Every structure is written in C-alpha cells, then in structure tokens.
Amino acid sequence: MSYKITASEKALLQELQINEHISKMKTYPHHGEVTVFDHSEHVVITSLKIADLLCLSEQQKKNIIIGGMLHDFFLYDWHKGRIRTEGIHCWLHPKVALKNASALFDLNNNQKNIIRSHMFPATLLHPPTCAEAWIVSLADKLCAILEYFNTRSKNT
Ligand SMILES: [Fe+2]
Ligand SMILES: [Fe+2]
After folding, report:
1. How many angstroms separate the alpha carbon of residue 7 from the centre of ligand 1?
2. Which CATH number does the domain housing residue 42 bear?
3. Which residues place a Cβ less than 5 A from the ion ligand 1?
4. In a domain, 153, yes or no
5. Cα 136–142–145 angle (5° rounding)?
6. Domain limits at 103?
7. What is the full per-residue pLDDT of the chain (156 aa) written as tens digits?
8. Counting ligands in written order, which one lies closest to the CA of residue 119?
9. Residue 70: how many other CB atoms lie within 10 Å
10. Cα 136 to averaged position of ligand 2 atoms, centre (Å)
C-alpha cells in the first residue's frame, strides 16, 4: 500500500497529538514496548491506507483520524490490573475512551462509533455501523499483532 498521508490529514493528526490530554497516552505502555500513543498513531496510518484503497471520502478519513487517535483514550495502565472496579479492561476500555473523548471533543456519530465498537466482536452489543469503524476495528487488530511480534523479535 503506497498511500502517503496528505498535508491536511497530517495537520489534523498533529493538532490532536499536541493536545495535553492525548499526549498523556505516551506514558502508558500498551503492546510490548509500544505505548498507547504510538499504537493509536499506527492504527490511524494503517486505517488511512485501507480507507484510501476503498476510496473513502475526505470526511470519512477525518473521522478515522479523530476516532482512531482516540479509540484507546482510556488513560490508565491496563497492565496494573485488567480487572478494574468497573469491569474487565477488554470490554470496559472502549466505553471509558468514549467518555474521556466526549468530555474533551465534540465528536460526530461516526467518530463515536469508531471508538465504542473498535473491540468488536468482543463488544457484541456495540458493532461498527459505518465503514470507518469497520476499518479502524480491523486495523486495530492488525497493528496489535504486529506490535507484539515486533517487540518479541527485538527481544529474542
Ligand atoms: Fe482498544
Ligand atoms: Fe487499540
């Protein structure tokens, strides 16, 4: 996939990434040595490549950048307790991420759906309902696998 992020997409991504709350994701480890921040960027770039192949619109790509960067915006270290007082991290974190993101940003319905449904089919009651959410959910799984294997291969 030879897709190159456009200047306006890059500007939107950077605008999000310099946000003080989003920057906090740099302090939380996620998959292997990859932080939640770097994983989220990886998911955005991978999703944009898929979106470009499928000829999605500029607005849909914008939704992917915002929803993708915020899909894991749960702001805690899940390694320090997968079972939290509110529930198990795997099922809980999309709900927490959406709550945190909605408190800071005025999200449209597709951006909300991207965040809430990204763990589908683990979250069966919250399926993707738009192309952008299906793409981010797929890219999330691909990126997580690559991140685990890259860290493992570095350490062996
Ligand atoms: Fe997630
Ligand atoms: Fe993720």
Report:
1. 27
2. 1.10.3210
3. 72
4. no
5. 140
6. 7-144
7. 677 899 999 999 999 999 999 999 999 989 888 999 999 999 999 999 999 999 999 999 999 999 999 999 999 988 886 556 667 888 999 999 999 999 999 999 999 999 999 999 999 999 999 999 999 999 999 999 999 888 766 665
8. 1
9. 29
10. 9
